[in-house]
Design a protein that fits this description.
It contains nine helices and 20 strands. It is α+β, with helices and mostly antiparallel strands. The protein binds adenosine-5'-diphosphate and magnesium ion.
């Protein structure tokens, strides 16, 4: 239970909905998911969202022999469903946008460090050097629903939950749900608002204890990537699960966590991983150049930095700096 709690990066803080609140908690995509729906007919909507998340898990889980991603990695290329092709395209787009700090072809590296099947170990220099040439999103080509991996293997773990939460939120909206909160293991998506006010979502402190701050979300999502989510210790050193595709090692960019806030959950998920790898300076350069998202950074020294677009939407008792 302790491990599961550690994986919940953002804890939603909210009072009970009125007149009716329905909540569903289940385990999918290797994480605890919790969906809260306010209003009537919530039960049917929750069931639809839950089945959709299990369906997407079955389609995208790299380790599941029945999944499309498993088949694709085994064959090296071929036809996939239009959905999977679209997700891979989005992932490659975010890769290009972030100078491949986000790269779904990190699979050989996540394997090497044992993050894929929890067989954690520190690989040798030689092993890393041998795996690095297999990594590179530029090798992958998508045309229509055909995907060619070009010798790479893909791991959609850095984007699948965001993508899935967006799909689940769409399903809820189609069923008339106007107010809901989805928490897919720290990928939080708000549908509408909560009793006329924004949903309130806490950004977890990487060291535990008091929240770093609270975000107001209305029809937006917040996704955190941090070094405290999944890690192991070897010889007194901590190794976490976000790999710098350029070094083949857990990223050491001076950050403890990055929370990305935007309307597009797949983008938020991919970017949270990417910005964590890039570090704050490069992340802010990207933010200034591209826009379309906001972020909360927690630095190694505990400092909290918040992009200017979150002005009025972020509250913190511990204090923070606004960056422009
Ligand atoms: P989580 O999935 O734990 O919420 P992230 O969204 O940051 O956290 O994704 C981390 C996962 O993404 C890793 O477990 C691994 O599967 C994959 N991954 C690790 N490093 C990268 C990277 N640089 N680019 C793309 N995916 C990555
Ligand atoms: Mg991510």
């Amino acid at each position: 239970m302790k491990r599961i709690a550690a994986l919940l990066l953002i804890l939603p803080l909210f009072a009970a909905c009125a007149p009716r609140e329905d909540k569903r908690t289940f385990f999918a995509m290797d994480t605890v998911m919790e969906i809260t729906v306010c209003g009537e007919a919530a039960d049917e909507a929750l069931s639809a969202a839950e089945s959709e998340l299990f369906r997407l898990d079955g389609m995208l889980a790299r380790g599941d022999e029945g999944s499309e991603v498993y088949a694709l990695n085994a064959s090296g290329g071929g036809e996939v469903s239009p959905e999977t092709a679209e997700l891979i395209s989005r992932a490659l787009e975010i890769g290009g946008l972030t100078d491949w700090a986000f790269d779904v072809t990190v699979a050989p590296l996540t394997d090497l460090w044992g993050f894929y099947d929890q067989s954690y170990r520190v690989p040798t220099e030689e092993e890393i050097a041998a795996a690095l040439p297999l990594v590179g999103g530029e090798r992958v080509e998508v045309s229509g629903s055909r995907v060619e991996l070009g010798g790479a293997k893909i791991d959609l773990g850095g984007i699948a939950k965001g993508w899935a939460s967006q799909r689940a939120a769409e399903l809820l909206r189609e069923r008339g749900v106007a107010s809901a909160l989805l928490n897919l293991g720290g990928n939080v998506q708000a549908v509408g608002s909560h009793r006329g006010k924004p949903w309130r979502v806490a950004v977890q402190n990487p060291d535990g204890g008091e929240y770093v701050g609270v975000l107001d979300l209305t029809d937006a999502c917040a996704v955190t990537s941090g070094d405290y989510q999944r890690f192991f210790e070897d010889n007194g050193k901590i190794y976490h699960h976000i790999i710098d595709p350029k070094t083949g090692r857990p990223a050491e960019s001076g950050l403890r966590s990055v929370t990305v806030v935007c309307a597009d959950a797949a983008l938020a998920d991919g970017l949270s991983t990417a910005l964590f790898v890039m570090g704050m300076d490069k992340a802010l350069e990207l933010w200034r150049a591209e826009g379309g998202f906001e972020a909360v950074f927690v630095a190694a020294d505990g400092g909290v930095y918040v992009t200017a677009g979150l002005e009025g939407r972020f509250e913190s008792r511990g204090g923070y700096k606004t960056v422009k």
